[in-house]
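*** Fold description ***
***
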Amino acid sequence: MIEYAKVILPKVTFSRELFQKELNKCIGWIEESEIDELQQWCVDNFGNVYPDIIADAFDNKAA
């Protein structure tokens, strides 16, 4: 499922709200063991654009 996230997320970077929505959906879909990998991939690829969304999404997952 992480590969699906890597296809979808780059396609929605034009919209802050859509990126946030899709990231949260992807986090809900992927296996627990893939969370760290997805987080690092998001930081590497979108950390300069949406660092707050990424941090919030993964902090909420850990809670």
In short: Residues 46 and 54 are 8 Å apart (CA to CA). The two ends are 22 Å apart (CA to CA). The chain is about 75% helix and 0% strand. Residues 2-62 form one domain.
